Amino acid sequence: MTVCGLLRLDGEPAERAVLEAMHAASTVPLPARRWVHLDGPFGVVAAAEPALGAAPPVAVDQAGTVVVLDGWLGRARTAGDGGPPRDAVLAAASYRDHGEDGFDRLAGDWVSVVWDPSRGRLVCARAALAMRRLLTWHDGRRFVFGTELTQLVAAGVPARLNQAFLGELLCRALTTFHETLVGGVERLPAGQLAAAAVGRRPLRRRFDTLRSVVAAPTPVDRDQAAAGLRPRLERAVAAAVDDDVTGVLVSGGVDSSSVTALAQRLAAAGGSPGRLRPVAVTFPGEAHDESGWLDALDEHLGSRTLRLLPDAYDWERWRAWTALTWEPPPFPTAALLCGALRPLAEQGVRVVLTGEGGDDWFRGWRWHWPDLLRTGQVAALWRESGDGPPAPRHGLRRATRVGREAAVPLLRPAPAARPPAWVERRWLARIGLRDRRRAAAAADASAFASHDHRGRWQPAAARVVAPVYEAAQQRHSSLGIDWRHPLHDRRVVEYVLALHGSVLLAATESKPLLRRAVGDLLPAPIRRREGKARFDAAFHDAYAGLGGIEALAGHAMVKEGWVDLAVARRHYRHAVARHRAGLTPSGPHESLVSFWPLFAAATWLDQVPAS
User: Fold this and answer.
1) 280 neighbors 292 (Cβ within 8 angstroms)
2) How far apart, in whole angstroms, are the C-alpha atoms of residue 495 and residue 215?
3) In whole angstroms, how far apart are CA 200 and each of 40, 89, 122, 206, 584?
4) pLDDT for 452-494, tens place per residue?
5) How many helices (H) and strands (E) does the chain have?
6) H-helix or E-strand containing 603?
7) Is the pTM of this model over 0.90?
8) Are the C-beta atoms of residues 124 and 111 closer than 8 Å to each other?
9) CA distance linking residue 20 with residue 12, whole number of Å
């Protein structure tokens, strides 16, 4: 779907011509049917995306309150219930009954725009775990919003490069959830709302209570926890599947296989009227080929996974995409997913499930250890220190582990990762990166109740990946596909967040709770699988398609003194040599992935007319 519009903060009437221009700038293919609403200083235009039907998901009550909902509310469909328009009606009822607190009662992946004419108030909100996004900008006269950056530019928002954000992007160290490459344009962070009214400065605040969920002080039996998790996983999958054909991106890993197996069981039990279409990208003869795992899954489930060969990274296509959308080009691994989704879209598949969320919520770690030490639970900490691969047998090794992972985090914060050597330090000083990182670290420290609480959310990592997932959502929408993630379902996440950290940590396996909850549905090889495939080759080949690091010679980033090409060249050649020798990176800046921000930023700067 697309939704865009504005509120005139100066009280002047909203201009239909501006709304028309914003809608025309949408890059996601839209049905002919659209909905335009003008009410004094407020104006909005909305149209449903192909995956969610032709009817714009809009509700207007007798008092003139307008509710637009882009997305879905995480509920299982029933025949004839109206789909997305019905979701807008439910969102409107929640707002009517509970005001802005009603947003916290809505599950699913959505952004919403509410115009309350009785109060002259506009509220934009985004679900706590949303992949969909909403962008905003204001200058004191207008508050402009839209689901795509090009819509805001069409409304006259100035295109000025945000150098501070660019520097953080090159360092893979974003310090905020709201900034973008265009200065003044903000992403509405998940779980927050932005409110605007005539004559008032717009304000942004958090509304969701999910981040306030803290782990229980004592653990429960893991089998008991798994028994409570299973029905929540089943409901999450049931809510996400389509009533016709549902695709599933599957790799043979525990996460995507769990989602596939749950969806297959749902269909077999008659809990879903639709069919399942698993799809995977395979790499015959390569170290990261996962065909063997797919064979095991297909044999166990009686399914036939559509197996596709990877396409080479198409720089011409993604340059054109960047020029059209003002989005950086996708990671090579993300481009592979687009290649997998295209044949599904051609077959009429509208909804595709993934295993995203497994690493976020189920992988477990020793984040609760500092809390055990801080609260005097030394005996419990000592018992746990013998767990986790490799299990230390000697008391000195156990004491060292406790000191490193329980005591040290209490005594001093973890040091910030060093910026890549090829990003010029003088430029980073000019854009204030050190101060921005300190401010982010202080905000993170104050936003969570404990070490374990912060560790579950991993805010520093979340800031880096959030724009990546949002851009992927837009790309998939352009194919007519809605991308859904049952392991990010609020009911699942809320349940797992409330469990003691030891329930998620085991000596012999990763993600023990998820494996225990769905183990009966998985083939034994996948149930026991550890580790993940590495896709460094996809990055190596994408860079090679441009001529390697020399493609950046003479680029504006080098000329402006933002990037030291000689240093980048030395590190790049070293990383390529290790990759070709079959060696894994020994540090973060030896990974070929670490060079992607250079190539992505260069493409964006070349294709987007930002000053």
Assistant:
1) no
2) 9
3) 16, 29, 11, 19, 54
4) 999 999 999 999 999 999 999 988 888 889 999 999 999 999 9
5) 25, 17
6) helix 596-607
7) yes
8) yes
9) 18
